[in-house]
Amino acid sequence: MTRNVSIAMVRKIRAPIRAVYDAWTEPRLIAKWLAPGDDSVTSVTTDLRRGGRYRIEGEHVEGRAYSISGTYLELSPERRIAMSWTYDGPVASLKGDASTLIAEFRALDANSTELTLTHEKQQSREGAEITRVSWSSCITKLENVAGEAQCKHTGEAQAPRDFFSEGQRQIQDQRETRQLADRLEAVLVHDKLGAADAAFIARQNMFFIATTDAYGQPNCSYKGGKRGFVSVIDENTIAFPHYDGNGMHLSLGNIRETSKVGLLFVDFERQARLRVLGRAHAADGDALLAQYPGAQFIIRVTVESVFSNCPRYVHKMRLIEESVFVPAENAETPAPEWKTLNAVADVLPDKDKHLAGTGTDLNKTLNRD
Question: Largest CB tally within 10 Å, which of 27, 84, 166, 209?
Fold first, then answer.
C-alpha cells in the first residue's frame, strides 16, 4: 500500500470570499454541498474553534450510511481552514488513519474567490483518486451554495427560518394541525423573556435541561437548587450554577461541543410549565459565582425562543423539602452516599479521597432499592 498520497486543486468560485468561507463553516450550508454526486448529508455538527470537533453524517447514493469527523487544526476567517479528516463507512479504500484537509481562500475581486484545496496523507492511490473525484463534484455544488450565502451579506431578502422542522411539519400535515401549530406559535412563542416568564422562572427550584453532543446524541439532565437559583439577567439571558455532580459532566461537555440547550421549567404545584431554547456557555470565572456558594461553573443561556405549554398532563405535586445537598453559605454540604462505594474508592478526586469507603449497594445509594 502506498501511504501519504496527497491531492491538490485550485478552483475559481464566483462568489465573495466571505460567502465562500461561510459555506465551509455554517452547518446548514455545509449540508448542502459537502457530499459528492447523489450522496447526501444528513447531519452536521461543528465546534468552530481550534481543537474543536466536527462530524458530518451522510448516506451514499445506494443508502449506505457513512460519517466524516475530525478536529479543526486552524481557523483563520476568510483565509484558511485546516482540519483532520477521518472517514468511517463502507468504502474500504477511504478508511484508515486520519488525513489532513486544508482549504485556502484568496479574494480575486469583490465577487470571486480562489479556493486552493489540499488533501494530504491519503492512505492509498485508489483512495486518493476517489477523494479527488469527490472533491471535484463537491466544489461544483459549493459555488451554488456560496451564492446563497452571498445573499445574506448583500441584503437580499431571505425566507425567515421556520420555527418548525421539516419532520414536525410532516406530522402536522398528517394530523391536519399545521394551521393550529402556526397559530399557537404566533400566540405563544417569543424570542425574549417577558415579565411573566421572569417571575415564573424566579419561583422555580428545579428544571430539566436537554443538550446534544457533537454526534447528535441527546442527553436530558435534572438541575436543582434553592428556589430562585436561576437568575434572569435580562430579557435575553438567564444564568444558573453548576454544582458538584458525579464527574461525568455530560451536560457541560455537550454545551462545550454544540452550545444548544433546551430548558423545561415545571411548577408541579401550579401545574404549569415553560420552555426556553437557546445557546449556552459555561465559565468557571463568571462574576456570578460569588452569589452561589459551592458552584463550580456559571452557565449563561442566550435565549432564542420562549414558550409555554398546555398544563393538562402535569401531575399536581407539593414540595416536602428542598434537597439538603444544595450548597448554602456558612454551612457544610453533606457528601452523597455513593462516594463511599468501594467501586469508586480509588478514582475519587483528591478533594473527596477522605470519603472512600467499602460500600457495595449501588441501588441503595441512588435511592432505587
Answer: 209
Give domain 5-154's CATH architecture: 2-Layer Sandwich (3.30)
Parallel, antiparallel or unpaired: strands 80-88 and 99-109: antiparallel
Distance CA 95, CA 67 (A): 11
* CA distance linking residue 48 with residue 125, whole number of Å: 31
Terminal Cα distance for the chain, rounded? 57
What Å distances lie between residue 270 and 200, 225, 266, 319, CA to CA? 11, 19, 9, 11
Give Rg (Cα) of the chain. Answer: 25
Q: Among candidates 33, 9, 36, 37, which has minimal Cα distance to 149?
A: 33
Provide the total of helices (H) and of strands (E) in the chain, helices listed first. Answer: 8, 14
Residue 72's DSSP bridge partners are 83
Cell numbers at 256, concatenated: 462545550
pLDDT tens per residue across span 92-111: 999 989 999 999 999 998 88
Summarised one tens digit per residue, pLDDT across range 18-56 is: 999 999 998 989 999 999 999 999 999 998 888 999 999
As given in the structure block, the three cell numbers for residue 21 are 468561507
Cα distance between residue 204 and residue 263, in whole Å: 12
DSSP 83-105: EEEEEESS-GGG-SS-EEEEEEE
State the pTM of this model: 0.61
Sequence-ordered list of residues with C-beta below 8 angstroms from that of 110, at least 6 positions apart, any chain:
16
CA distance 64 to 226: 50
Topology, domain 190-308: Pnp Oxidase; Chain A (2.30.110)
CA 309 to chain centre: 24
Average pLDDT for the chain: 90
Judged against a pLDDT cut of 60, whether residue 1 lies above it is answered with no
Cell of 302: 442566550
Cell numbers representing residue 88 in the block: 468511517
136-150, 192-206, 270-284: the lowest-pLDDT one:
136-150
